[in-house]
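pasting input
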Amino acid sequence: MTAEIISVGTELLLGNIVNTNAQYLAQKCAGLGLSMYYQSVVGDNEERMTESFRQALSRSDILILTGGLGPTEDDMTKEVCAKVMGRTLYLDEHSKSRIEDYFVRTGRKQITENNWKQAMVPEGAIVLDNHNGTAPGLIIEQGEKCAILLPGPPNELIPLFTEQVEPYLRSRCPETIYSEMVKLCGVGESRAETMIKDLIDAQTNPTIATYAKTAECDIRVTARANNETEAEEIIRPVVEELYRRFGHNIFTIREDETLEQVVVNLLKRNCLTVTTAESCTGGLLASRLINVPGASFAVKSAFVTYCDEEKMRLLGVPKEFLDKYTAVSAEVAEAMAVGGAKAGGANACLSVTGIAGPDGGTKERPVGLVYIGCYLNGKTVVREYRLRGNREKIREQAVVQALDLLRRCLIEQEGE
Amino acid sequence: MTAEIISVGTELLLGNIVNTNAQYLAQKCAGLGLSMYYQSVVGDNEERMTESFRQALSRSDILILTGGLGPTEDDMTKEVCAKVMGRTLYLDEHSKSRIEDYFVRTGRKQITENNWKQAMVPEGAIVLDNHNGTAPGLIIEQGEKCAILLPGPPNELIPLFTEQVEPYLRSRCPETIYSEMVKLCGVGESRAETMIKDLIDAQTNPTIATYAKTAECDIRVTARANNETEAEEIIRPVVEELYRRFGHNIFTIREDETLEQVVVNLLKRNCLTVTTAESCTGGLLASRLINVPGASFAVKSAFVTYCDEEKMRLLGVPKEFLDKYTAVSAEVAEAMAVGGAKAGGANACLSVTGIAGPDGGTKERPVGLVYIGCYLNGKTVVREYRLRGNREKIREQAVVQALDLLRRCLIEQEGE
């Protein structure tokens, strides 16, 4: 079965707000095993709405409409949809009394005449009570197809969807869709795809798709089946094959797990603490680690040293190193990592020093040259990177590479 | 002239990501005076892409396509668009050498065969160099109409748009549309709108629109005129009126200027240095400051102290304060700010301590309770905030509030 979303609202066309409803509904539909081929946004204009609704109903089984259910004249999603589906509107007494209740409950002064517009319902529609606003949700069925109308504000739309629309759709869906996300670091999207092209081409169930992230790459394996157990059985051999090909480049197969979570969990499991000694990343690395709930067991402190003097004073980097090799060098990265671990009293320390630009680059030492040091229990590893992009992107990539370096060092140490 | 956006990507249809590109482009188009009636999302499917592109080109003057320009077989926005517009593809040597250069500069090991796919260009297309990735942007003109193809990652799309597409579109628009962005901090969008509702309602040229950002609010004033000077004259009195109403809540009227840039410039102008002493923000504040090019004149070091012991050891926060008031208190925020300035040898220090959640909140001290301290030349100010949202959102808001607090302290001191 196919689902399609049309979001109605001039505020989306003007870019005043971002369409989080579409993401929420798309995710929900994917989870229900509904295929989605189209999403669109249209303004509060009768002609364009008519054309869009008609087209969507002709090509999709389930049409989800959001927004345009308010009390003003501009709001005409319901009116246009009823017209397209050949229904007339009537005053629904149940909805009317709910609107009256809502005004009393929320202490609003006066119901204006246009509020009754929200109690008008298309013939034969299923009315969904809205506990957080005055516009009821509506389902209009037509043979195998249906249109679902939901109010635009997320705090009204989300509860209406989870409590009433989701059970309704589940009862209409025959198949289950289930997917796993295999997340890689250290292999670009294009190389990853080449490495598994045979798998991608050979598979129709499950399907395999790659997604590029900043210095990461995700591979989604999606199966259709009659139930979750069956879906898992279809997915398992593919995931095992991905492990054979990518090995430790895979940092997780949990969709909601981030690289920093993996690192924090590895640290916790080994009862280790980490600190950071950052130059060009300026605290971004520490902040990624601390964004993990419960990071306080593994991260106690972090240092940003953005000039030579502070690298010497706070981290004990020898002046000779800075003079001889400059601040952006393997030697200084190593000294920062060792000194940072000492200054922070931690078992591990990640250091980052590089040229983030836009200025400061030369031909031999271009913008994007970054050294990352990883001190762990007396051993230090330093890597050189040549990153590309603007200042922000270079810093973001450096953070991911640093996290990944620590992850690999921790895994290696566990294996010893 | 009308513009339409089609975002290509299964990840949007599956709800893996939210379509921030559509919002960005819609806002930009509105700023250029282009009318937008439709936005849509379509997956990586040749037939459906063909149908959607054809429909969009028939009803709109400017079609902006995002995504689907990657090196993999799934990526076929360019191929389908070229076919719909009757163009063949050729290997563009310039783009090819840029891709080679990108691989060398980013130190990637090997270019795989599929990377050359990104150097294929439709006949007669304008090639837009992408400095942050391998997919060039493209403009394909056809009579009065045109299709603009941009890569999906925002850090590639945004610079391509501002540096190359925006000037191009401006040259095609008959009227001059000129807009100024008045950026506020410390006033919510809904209050800001109420404060200027009379101006919004009364004006048709210039128009006034508000945009909510994380703990910030932008007001865009847009004028239509025959030339830039005329447009500026139309806008000036409105901006002056906004200054009368919002005063120091306005931190800039330069569209490309960020709050952290304003703060770094104020510090530089007064020959002052700043450090940070961060708990729940974990380095995010320092990292925002250091993201300003040339920040090294004002930021030398920063401290993250994520546990009581490190607050005492590195910042000299008295143990009694932590015992008596807890780490999340005005007293500790003040001690962190004073101690941080001393430890970092800086003229100013911003401290942040709070409950970012998801755990650790109580009824009296809920998640979102944050104290920010600002030490500046011997004087310390502390503010309490009650922020809403998830862990990440709370930390982001805390960073903005901290930057804004320092900005206000610096302005006040300049006035003395």
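fyi The CA atoms of residues 349 and 375 of chain B lie 5 Å apart.
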